[in-house]
Amino acid sequence: MILSMTGYGDARSAVDGVSYRVEIRCVNNRYFKAAMKLPEQFQRFEGDIDRLLRSRLNRGSITYALRMADESPSAACRINQNVLDEYARQFSDVAKRYPLVRIDFARLLDAPGVVQLADIDDERLAAQFKIVETLSGKAMDGVIAMRKAEGEALLRDLRVRCAEIRGLLENVRKRSPGVVGEYQRRLQTRVQQLLDGLEGVNIQMHEDALAREIAIFAERCDVNEEISRLASHLDQFERRHALLRRSRVESSISSPRNCCARRTRSAASRTTVRSPGMWST
Any idea of the CA torsion for 273, 278, 279, 281, to the nearest 10 degrees? Predict the structure, then answer.
């Protein structure tokens, strides 16, 4: 099966107040190259995601993006009360020394160390990564499905173009034997026209020189090897396509579902059911 190098897939879910969205984009590249956009707490799983992508998308420039929105209470940042009290005390001293200075208490929250991120729960993070793994698999399913669809379209286009090339090649094959004779007639006509235009000069056409020129042209315009090579390429393409179709059919036949159906039909064919009229009294 021909697979395109371009693909896109996404998957999303919401579990325990946390929404997840995974997007995977893939474009052409001879090798595997992954670029990831992960939340800060998921940076530790970058190697695991890379291996997950490599296991199914072995080529292409891949952009992986994970977006999360945690609306659960545990996602709230923590205010360091001790640090906030110290800032408030210092600003109060400043306000006493400079009465005209007005202090906005809300601005204290922007001071370094006042607002701190919630502590990371390793068990909760591991459970979240399991969800991300599942969503990544679904997103890769979408990428592979798009690759297959575009690959089938490319295959149809290639077969049409190969048929056109084969038709043109057959025309070249038919015209090739007459090219030298046609060139010989044109060359003789042109030389004779030149000789006829020379008044008062008696010059005869040398057949030997003309034959050498035609022999050189015949050697240069011999395309039999190129015709055979191109025909061989077209035949190899068709054979490769036939092998791919055969392998696809064999894989579908050997799938567990089809094997089970064949076993059921075989068992049914070996079982004989007699109608009541067949029994003798």
Answer: 170
